[in-house]
Amino acid sequence: IFIFFPSDLYAKYNCTYCQEDITGLRVKCVECQDFDLCLQ
């Protein structure tokens, strides 16, 4: 698991768990192809 800091203001990520847009920090699985979590 990596924690990513927002570096691309135009990138759009949705939380895999709650489906909300992720703004700010996100958690990314290094083994899963499409798995991002917000910190909410």
UniProtKB/TrEMBL annotation:
Organism whose genome encodes this protein: Bracon brevicornis
Residue ranges of domain ZZ-type in the record: 10-40
Record-linked Gene3D superfamilies: 3.30.60.90
Domain of life per record: Eukaryota
Coiled-coil regions listed: none
Keyword terms of this UniProt record: Metal-binding, Zinc, Zinc-finger
GO molecular function: zinc ion binding
InterPro entries: Znf_ZZ, Znf_ZZ_sf
Name of the molecule in the record: ZZ-type domain-containing protein
Lineage: Eukaryota, Metazoa, Ecdysozoa, Arthropoda, Hexapoda
